[in-house]
DNA sequence: GAGTGGTCTAGACCACTCC
DNA sequence: GAGTGGTCTAGACCACTCC
């Protein structure tokens, strides 16, 4: 419980002394060129526990004092580690209650990755209609973006999402077959709520960040039909790659967004 | 030098005791419903100095130790205040050198607000060609977004931006006439570098954040001509409102982006 | 060597939650 | 009242920059 687990950095004073980690305790050590502060090492250890599922999404993690005892560092050092994890949305702090593992089963998480907002009214989550779910071999471009080999097994999903009954998004997804083994159309259809919640609960894969590229395109005949709009209507085309722990790409999503009554919202800081 | 300036919060222990601010020094004070921690008050004071121009963009601000002495708080409290200012890109810390006021005259600042990236090659800043610069009365929609009254004086700018000689962006800007009094076409044309650098240096107005709404549209005849593309080509339409200190809206910018060889890039965290 | 921000500790007390 | 995260202090030492 209070031993320091395998440590990614070799210059950990906590690990090397195995005890109270005065910053100067191991002062003889060379000012290593790969210096990594103690709180970064603690952060990595906590991240490992998150990734391994020691603490599951939605659960309370040990208190700062408890973690400080476990890792033999001060509470301040644990705080600084957790500060960064909270800034990255991996955990959520609640004063008086504790620190919780973030989860996609939660209202506030639903719009972290979906930035399409209604022009009028409050945002709400769309309903999904699945058009196609199948296993296939990864085309070259998909394989490249998901860090797979061309021809590796992937799961392909096509769906339409509607707000208030108005079809607004046509989306194609590719998922690595190995990671999402056992994902079926039935499971997708019966599951209510955001897909990332399903991935998190049933496949132990939590999306933690994504990159997105956006263009303008004209609707093709098939997509226009699915969205109930004239062909050649301009649409936003988003290509999004989502990553889980360790910067591993685990989803490619290509979406077409109708911006008749919605817009893509962004904050620039 | 070491007196505490007017304070936005009434429960400042630093202000009320006028001296060493032990968190418990004024312990008799009610657990006020508008509690604001000391570091937030210090942050507000530093922000005031930034806004007033006491420290100008690009300049070094006083060291943490000096600020701690000035405000009669510990260095740790100043650090926490500056941490947040750095996270908001208002200042930049450089270890061993000090903390500098952020400026738009700087490579890294150029792409904070312009998210259009080339599909191939490294990002670089576009050249501008000004189509029109005039003073006018604010239309209702512009007035609303800039927090002006309909008919108030605004400066209108229309320009085309090109990457490697390829026209890619058509942009219309509206600026409050009062804030940007004296801005002329000549000054814009002769100024090399990003417009926000000019605004910062010549008008004392620094853009610190923006909100953006993006849609897909079809190019009209006039815009198609400016961008050397066929009419009805799909384009990204961005509407951006930029804010300076105090969340004051000081620019409305409507841009049309060709996404033939570029894409809008976003990171979702 | 002097000055800067960066890390780390130990200890005190606060606001908030739950009982 | 006990437990949690949140704030604040004072002091030590570190990495880095500039001279």
Outline the structure in words.
Chains A, B: This is UTRA domain-containing protein. Chains A, B: It holds the Pfam family UTRA. Chains A, B: Keywords: DNA-binding, Transcription, Transcription regulation. Chain A has 269 residues and is α+β, with helices and mostly antiparallel strands. The first copy, chain A, has eight helices and ten strands. Chain A folds into two domains: 13-101, Winged helix-like DNA-binding domain superfamily/Winged helix DNA-binding domain (Arc Repressor Mutant, subunit A), CATH 1.10.10.10; 110-264, Chorismate lyase-like (Chorismate lyase), CATH 3.40.1410.10. A six-stranded antiparallel beta sheet of chain A has the order 4-5-6-9-8-7. In chain A, strands 1-2 form a two-stranded antiparallel ribbon. A two-stranded antiparallel ribbon of chain A has the order 3-10. In chain A, helix 2 (38-52) crosses helix 4 and helix 3 (64-71) crosses helix 4. Chain A binds chain B through residues 88-89, 112-113, 115, 209-218, 232, 234-236, 240, 257, 259, 263-269, and chain B through 88-89, 112-113, 115, 209-218, 232, 234-236, 240, 257, 259, 263-269. The structure holds a DNA duplex (19 and 19 nucleotides).
